[in-house]
Amino acid sequence: MRATTENKLITNALVLGGILLSLGLIAVSAALNFRMAYRMGGTELDGWVYGSGAAIADGLKALLPFFVWWAWRKREWLAVGAGVVLFVVFTAYSFTAGMGYVAKLRAFSEGVRASAVETRAGLRDEESRIEARLEKLGVQRGEEEISAELEAVFARVLGKTTVGAYSENCTLARNWSRHSCARAAELRQELARAMEAAELEGRLHDVRGELRGLGSRGAGDVADPQLVALEGMAQELGLHTDRNRVRLALLVLVGLLFELGSGLGLYVSTVPWRGEGSAGVTGNGRGGETEPMLQYVADAKRLGDVEEFALECLAPEIGSKGLTSTAMFQEYAKWCRGRNEAPLVESEFVLRFEPVIEACNLKVRQRGANVMYMGVKRADAGAAAT
Known about the structure:
This protein has 386 residues and is mostly helical. The strands form three sheets. The chain has a three-stranded antiparallel β-sheet with strand order 4-6-5. Strands 1-2 form a two-stranded antiparallel ribbon. The chain is 70% helix and 6% strand. The protein has 13 helices and seven strands. The protein has three domains: 2-113 and 242-273, no CATH class; 116-225; 277-378, Arc Repressor Mutant, subunit A (Orthogonal Bundle).
């Protein structure tokens, strides 16, 4: 009993976790539909009306599987058809809205990455040009050192004056100062190279700082690494495709992720709870009424044997309308109660009843959502299936 309680707690925890995650997907899908519809409104009011309608339809889409299931159990085929049509329409609209939203985001992100790739490539080219120029210039002395030597040349004594005063800092070509001015010209060229090298080194420092600032943006020299990787994988597998088809496949995949998750996640997550409800059937034979079975199962001597049930409660009858699988299970559950035995769940009962079908040569027909066992009826007191 303790193990059963622990298993039930684990099942409930898993179901609640699935419900919460499914509700999160529903909220994301509804918000996505609202944003896409809101942007299509001509005015603020139009946007709110259109967006709210799209979000509400997306929420209803998640509940439609439950309504279709209930309608199927009650054999209301018109409601089943209407529910399926609504689910398909809502899903199709939401799918197109989701694909549009994802396409816009992908186009924006590709544009940002393409810009980053272009920026990184430009900075790399500039870095290469600067490094090549610095290598050509070689190692240069400092500007202050060169300027000091140039001033020393101008300060050289030339008769009763200096080279600088005599030649106006070597701007006038005169015989007595030509050797000193030749040296001054060399120093001026060296000073220009030193200034250029200093400027290039400063720019190189800035370029490398900008490259570090980009981080991983633009790395790989491609606008969308995911597309390139998937395209390469497809080619390795022998699939002939191009980048546009890969992009479209990704959009469809993301759209299906949102739509299947939000549309069917809640229904699938609650399967364990719905499955538990089919184990308990009341003695009046109506499948829509259930009761707690924990205490009853705990007090039962053993599980009800399907073959014993068939021998005691069923009898062959040619031309009879037969019994449905649901009615057969209800009779089995009633029989188990009378013997203080625990009934199997309906799915297990159906599996164990198959050998009885083969042994008795019963014909099986499909009737709507149910199965009909032909040529058999409830046995009177003392009758048995042969």
